[in-house]
Amino acid sequence: MSILVVGVNHRSGPLPLLERLTIAPEHLAKRVAGLAQRDNIREAVVLSTCNRTEVYVIAERFHGAYSDVCDFLCELGDLDIDELSPHLFSQHDDAAVGHLFEVAAGLDSAVLGEGEILGQIRTAWQVARDESAARVSLNLLLRSAVETGKRARSETAIGRGTASVSHAAVEMLGDVVGDLAGRRITVVGAGSMGEGVAVALHKAGGAEICVVNRSPERGAALAQRVGATAVGFDELELALASSDVIVASTGSGEPVITVDLIERARPADAAPLFVIDIAVPRDVEADVATLPGITVLDLDDLRDWADRGRALREKETDLVRGIVREEVENFGVELTARQAAPLVASMHQAAEAVRTAEIERFASRLAELDQSDRDTVESLTKAIVSKLLHEPSVRLKTDAGTPQGDRNAAAMRDLFDLG
Questions:
Q1: Any idea which architecture 165-304 has in CATH?
Q2: How far apart are the first and last CA of the chain?
Q3: Is 70 annotated in the active site?
Q4: What is the pLDDT of residues 181-193, one digit of tens each?
């Protein structure tokens, strides 16, 4: 068994490529289910966010599984392997485990320490479990990753300050446009990103916020929380006409703010408009940035801005990396112990079969005993078997994954005739 991660993330690939590989939430279940059915893959989890699309698999055959994942990514983005290969990131076994744990801890995020990734990992894991794509091994891996992320945030200050993409977008906005007081800001999309932006704007105070969402009920619920107004997408043009700032974060998969829409909504001599696009794929048509008086910022700009503020939490990274190393070691110990578990179970089953057979052989003699005495015999024989097998069971689990463990396992299979 080998643990393998293959994918593209914000460190290895450009934003246009990440857009092509992003999986919409409603399509994730079908994608991961299909991936887990490939010949060389036993289990699979797909983590698709604005910063990464990474595939974690338990490989039946390493090279075959790597090829299967590459084919999956090429199909996903309608890419040739030559287009994909220069940007692929891959690790296996301990390195793959360490990478996932660093992602969960916020060390591999564009905004160092951001907390949204932990929820995204939980979601990816739940989808894989629902599709029976994550079973024993990946369930253990993802559970350990979530625990690592929780420890990083509870035992260090890695998550203090700006620790989410949406909050970072609002802070960048303040740097770019200055005081937000009195600014008319339209938040397009009321999903998790849009909610984070609206909440951060509300905490910053002073801005007039309008939430535009396809579902009027969800938009209205968010608006009520943050003291904003809410409209449907049919009023997007009207909202843009009166906006100083637009923050776009829908999951539409295609541009919702186009050149045509902006030109209809705003005269050529309108006041300057700032547009921040934190959606992947992007919500804003590329040519919008060429219009006079329009400034468009996207995730690449946000990452550049976030890099300048990393020093505030950089001193915590050594502490977090220590937690990651500890959790990787713990995971390895538990994984090897679990690999010994089937042999230990078989050994106990074989011994129990002998015990019950002997009880049955003496059934006529035991029949003379009352129920209390028969229960005592049952308990006594079970205790003897358990005590005799305790030390061999412990040794098998403790030495699993080592040459001595392999010798112990071979001896137990021979002694108990376990095949």
A1: 3-Layer(aba) Sandwich (3.40)
A2: 20
A3: no
A4: 889 999 999 988 8
